[in-house]
Amino acid sequence: MTTPYDPSREGAQMSFEGRMSYGDYLCLEPVLSAQKPLSSAHDELLFIIQHQTSELWMKLAIHEITSAMGEIRQDRVQPAFKMLARVASIFEQLNNAWDVLRTMTPSEYTQFRGSLGQSSGFQSYQYRMIEFLAGNRNPAMLLPHAHRPEILAALEEVLSRPSLYDEALLLLARNGFDIGADAERTDWREMRTENPQVTEAWKAVYQDPEKHWPLYELAEKLVDFEDYFRRWRFNHVTTVERIIGLKRGTGGTGGVSYLRKMLQVELFPELWQVRTQL
Questions:
Q1: How far apart (Å, rounded) are the C-alpha atoms in residues 253 and 248?
Q2: Contact predicate 15/7, CB 8 Å
Q3: Which of 150, 143, 148 is nearest to 253 (CA)?
């Protein structure tokens, strides 16, 4: 008879009295006890975990985007490349999560939809922060967070500083490119307007990658980010339509119609326009 494997013989710690364990380090008790279904529906746990894990990934995305912005601001673009590549991978992970949620059918969702009240992913302040950080700035979107002063203050603070795309454009200017009005902006709160001079600057970068390699690579990292971000939005629309059809969202939006409008938003417009001109 085979002797059962004993990991302690190889030095594995088996006693954690007075020591930090895996669960202690990760604070698993509060994490795993944070799922509190409000109905007896089997699929409500899936719905909660899907959205909670998405929020955890978004927390990491915010950390990486903010850090990348700081590196670009200091002209240290190499570390920013790694951070932005990680953001793209995070959104790939978020994309894959829709596949799990899509295993829930419309009839299964209706069993607990009423328990959601008016709560909705539209109210995710971390998603809003990612949009603000990337450059999609619409102060009207602050309103769903007005009841939480600390969250409102955090979002307002993001709006008071340049976005990720603004930092990339300012880097272009520091490298001698004429980006017109974008070099003179001081009010970061409002959405910037598309700028032909910025398109020309990116065109010059793409026409001579070897000469402008750091800027060229930064441009591609931004496009990677938006590529995965768009896929995430598209999969969101498809999942919602598959589960609730064209009904209004629980938060009062048009549901699918609202999400389709969001598909038209470009985070880095000149980086997409320049492709037509090359």
A1: 6
A2: no
A3: 143
Task: Give the Cα separation of 207 and 222 in Å (integer).
Answer: 17
DSSP output for the chain: -PPPP-GGGGT-----TTS--HHHHHTHHHHHT----SSS-TTHHHHHHHHHHHHHHHHHHHHHHHHHHHHHHTT-HHHHHHHHHHHHHHHHHHHHHHHHHTTS-HHHHHTTGGGGTT--GGG-HHHHHHHHHHT---GGGGGGGTT-HHHHHHHHHHHTS--HHHHHHHHHHHTT---GGGGT----SSPPPP-HHHHHHHHHHHH-TTTTHHHHHHHHHHHHHHHHHHHHHHHHHHHHHHHHTTPPPTTSS-THHHHHHHTT--SSHHHHHHHHH-
Q: Which two tokens stand for residue 106?
A: 């419309």
User: Could you read off the pLDDT of 40-87 as tens digits, one per residue?
Assistant: 999 999 999 999 999 999 999 999 999 999 999 999 999 999 999 999
Q: How much is the pTM?
A: 0.91
∠ CA 11-17-20, nearest 5°, is 75
Contacts of 70 (CB under 8 A, 6+ apart): none
Full set of structural domains in the chain with CATH: 40-277 (1.20.58.480)
157-187: burial string, b at 16+ Cβ within 10 Å, e else:
ebbeebbbbbbbbbbbbeeebebeebbeeee
Our CA dihedral for 217, 222, 227, 229, rounded to 10 degrees, sits at 150
Which amino acid appears at position 127 of this protein? Y
Token pair listed for 7: 């990991």
Over the stretch 217-230, which tens digit does the pLDDT of each residue have? Answer: 999 999 999 999 99
Q: Residues 167, 80: contact at Cβ < 8 Å?
A: no
